[in-house]
Amino acid sequence: MLKYLVLVAFGFAAFLPSARSVAAAPASCTVGHVVDGDTFDCTDGTRIRMLQIDTPEANACGGSWATAALANIFLPVGTQVRLDYDAVTTDRYGRTLGAPIVRGTDGADYNISIVMVYVGLAHGAYYGDNAKYLDWANASETWARNAQWNMWAPGGPFNGGVNCGGGSAPAPAPPPDGGGCDPSYPDFCIPPPPPDLDCKDIAGKNFTVLAPDPHRLDGDHDGVGCES
């Protein structure tokens, strides 16, 4: 009987997340490949499952949308990220659980997990027995849902719709603290780089542009951006 209980306990433990210490996890990495909307690979081979978010699977409605946004806007290949951790740093699939932090040109640090939720491309989620950013993620989801951003738009996948997205995202919404709007674009909020945004990423057209125009949205320098 004792032998049976030991075997059962051992088998059950195999399905529990590993509690690798934070000290053993990488402090930073360079993005080598985006797997899907909430997972990416570092150039050293470490696979990162982002904390406190969940995006549609790659083959589900919205999956390619979230993946394209993460790969092309928020974490393009070559991006240097600092990795922040909670209590559990490895899930049962062997992925490292961390939040990628990117330093913006304004000197501020941006938690890309939270950014993905805040622009309506991911749900806030409890995952891997970690909850460090869960309140922040849930608050960001409430904002995105009320603002009807991206997948929360009418007909979008988060509203039960079938508009699965075209593989790119409009300009990100302002971060939860209400700041982060570049003064070069006073008509509506466009955040400073990174990431570098093009007119195809911006929902508005024919808006005022002031120097220094860090996104170079006013190509002919007439003070009007993304002219239609």
Question: Can you lay out the helices and strands and say which pair or pack?
Answer:
Elements: H1 2-13, E1 28-36, E2 39-42, E3 47-50, E4 53-54, H2 63-74, E5 80-84, E6 96-103, E7 109-111, H3 112-118, E8 123-124, H4 134-147, E9 207-208, E10 224-225
Parallel strand pairs: 3-6
Antiparallel strand pairs: 1-2, 1-5, 2-3, 4-8, 5-6, 6-7, 9-10
Helix pairs in contact: 3-4
CATH topology of the largest domain: OB fold (Dihydrolipoamide Acetyltransferase, E2P)
Percent helix:
10-25%
Number of helices: 4
Task: Give the structural class.
Answer: alpha+beta
Main sheet overview:
5 strands, mixed, barrel
Low-confidence runs of at least 5 consecutive residues: 1-21, 167-179
Order of secondary-structure elements: HEEEEHEEEHEHEE
Strand content: 15-25%
Mean pLDDT: 80
* Overall CATH class of the largest domain: Mainly Beta
In words, what does this structure look like?
With 228 residues, the chain is of the alpha+beta class. The chain folds into 2 domains: 150 residues, OB fold (Dihydrolipoamide Acetyltransferase, E2P), CATH 2.40.50; 48 residues, no CATH class. It is 20% helix and 18% strand. The chain is built from 4 helices and 10 strands, in the order αββββαβββαβαββ. The strands form 3 sheets. Strands 1-2-3-6-5 form a 5-stranded mixed β-barrel. Strand 2 and strand 3 form a beta hairpin. Helix 3 runs parallel beside helix 4. It is globular and about 55 Å long.
